[in-house]
Amino acid sequence: MAIPINTELLDGCVLAILSQEDYYGYAITQLVQQTIPISESTLYPVLRRLKKQGWLTTYDKPFQGRNRRYYQLTPNGLQRLSEIRSDWELYKHQIDWLMKGNQDE
């Protein structure tokens, strides 16, 4: 059974990938799919939303006679990623605490 992925977590995954280097949409999908079962049709609206919020920019680059749209993290996107990472650490710690039966570490 797969655990549902919330929007903030998916945003964080995309922003984290793009914090390493710029990627085009299909490549981002492939990288996310290595860990999370997600379809391309789910990811492209996420990319558009992140761009609309100012966390990503895009540029086109020719590839084999056509253009690929690359996504790039903005400074605001990097700040958002930092916030999501902080939230994730707290959430992960709380879930670990519950799953371990409230045992002291």
TrEMBL record:
> For the Transcription regulator PadR N-terminal domain, which residue ranges apply?
14-82
Q: Which domain of life is it from?
A: Bacteria
InterPro entries with a match to the protein in the record: Metal_resp_DNA-bind_regulator, Tscrpt_reg_PadR_N, WH-like_DNA-bd_sf, WH_DNA-bd_sf
Write the protein's name.
PadR-like family transcriptional regulator
Q: Which organism is it from?
A: Lactobacillus selangorensis
